[in-house]
Amino acid sequence: MVELVADLRRRYLDVFSTHLQSANGKPFYASDLVVFGVLDRQIGLLEAMPSLFAEKNIHALAPLLRIQLDGLLRLHAFRIVESMHDLSSHIIKGKQLRNFKDREGALLQDRHLVSTLSKELPWIDEMYSTLSGWVHLSSTHIFTAVTEGEEDRTIKVGVGGFRENLPEGLWEEARGAVGAIHEATISMVEAYFER
To answer: Which domain holds residue 60?
Structure first.
């Protein structure tokens, strides 16, 4: 995980510095400022991943992955609106993204952003649903504290380190999610800066 995070962080910084060097005295736009904010948040959240994986802290990891997915969705919103400038001004003024409309007149609610992006990234719908289940208290939290017992009609209950009993496949999925979210985010940022 440390190597993946270091590679993604380096790539984010490369995209950012390449853009700044190519700007060479050109003005920044409101949308640039929003993208810079997304980049900074993505890097900060990404930097927290290695320790969460090492500690097997799914309760912190999954919601932070959901926030990282949020960054990707916010960048996607720029691609489906009539005016990036108007959307950026809306966000900078502290207004909710979900109250802004895309070029077809649909509100930029997360479900709409996921739906429109799923045409390009088919994995995003399932990932969004799974990660959202870790944000609000749900059965995912209950079944990390309670598992089936070894004897018939028994359960095992534990908290704290008990979550270490989670299947290894869960951690592989989480590693894949980190990579997928950030690969897509980097691609979107590169495309934005190329405009």
So the answer is: 2-136+167-194
**Contacts with 135 (C-beta within 8 Å, 6 or more apart), sequence order:** 62, 63, 66
* CA distances to 15, 58, 105, 177 from 62, in Å: 26, 6, 32, 10
Instruction: Assess if residue 126 is contained within a domain.
Output: yes
Question: What does the DSSP 8-state code read for residue 136?
Answer: S
Residues 86-136 have pLDDT tens digits of 999 999 999 999 999 999 999 999 999 999 999 999 999 999 999 998 888
Of 103, 97, 105, the C-alpha closest to 80 is 103
CB 136 within 8 A of CB 130: no
pLDDT digits (tens, 9 = 90+) for 37-56: 999 999 999 999 999 999 88
Domain contains 141 = no
Q: Would you tell me how many other CB atoms lie within 10 Å of the CB of residue 48?
A: 14
In a domain, 151, yes or no: no
Q: Establish if 149 belongs to a structural domain.
A: no
